[in-house]
Amino acid sequence: MARRVAWGCAVMMSASAVGCASGDRYAGMPGPGEYDRTFLSHAYEAAMAQSVVAQAAEQRGHVEAVKRVARTVAADERRLMSEIYNLSQDKGVPLPNAPGHDGQALARDLEQAPDTKFDRAFVKAAGRWAQREAALYQDAAERAGDPDLRALARRSLPGARERARTICGLASAG
């Protein structure tokens, strides 16, 4: 158990952990309410960050299990990005063009990780992000005002939880 915490897979399942309950980035825009717009933005940013990190792990990972999980995570996150993008277009909600500050810092940290420590750094970082993403979908499944967004969150939650378990499983195996 100590290894899981050290590798960053401690459970973080609150809305404040993902920042979904705050922000008025799209205040005054018609369409979905503030929470729903923020959820779409955060979900897209999380998927972008996880996709970038997973692609790096596919290329730089040394352990085959890490590469296998990274391929799955990258494919899942690209699918999510597409679904979120299409829904945001239908709802008239603009999305960010790049991961937010936290996602960029995550990618930068992994880029700077020495090759000998990359797999461990990936598991730690991706585990934290997978936990955040699961928390984001859990919160939106309960709180989103738009029924299409609630449905997206409910459909995406099991996969997000599974990704978190799988990544954290790598930590306990290593």
Summarize the structure in words:
With 174 residues, the protein is mainly α. The chain has one domain (31-173): Ferritin, core subunit, four-helix bundle (Ferritin). 74% of the residues lie in helices and 0% in strands. The chain has seven helices and no strands. It has helices at 2-6, 15-18, 34-60, 64-91, 101-112, 118-143, 147-173. Helix 3 packs antiparallel against helix 4 (64-91). It is elongated. It starts with a helix and ends with a helix. The model is unreliable at 1-30 (pLDDT under 50).
What ranges have pLDDT less than 50 throughout 5 or more consecutive residues?
Answer: 1-30
Q: In CATH, what is the class? A: Mainly Alpha
Secondary structure category: mainly alpha
The mean pLDDT is 82
> What name goes with the CATH superfamily?
Ferritin, core subunit, four-helix bundle
Integer count of domains: 1
Q: Outline, from the CA principal axes?
A: elongated
Strand content: under 5%
CATH topology-level name:
Ferritin
* Percent helix: over 70%
Total DSSP E strands: 0
Q: Count the helices. How many? A: 7
Report the biggest beta sheet as strand number plus sense, adding barrel if it closes.
none
CA-to-CA gap between the ends? 12 Å
What is the alpha-carbon Rg in Å?
16 Å
| CATH architecture term | Up-down Bundle
**H/E element sequence:** HHHHHHH
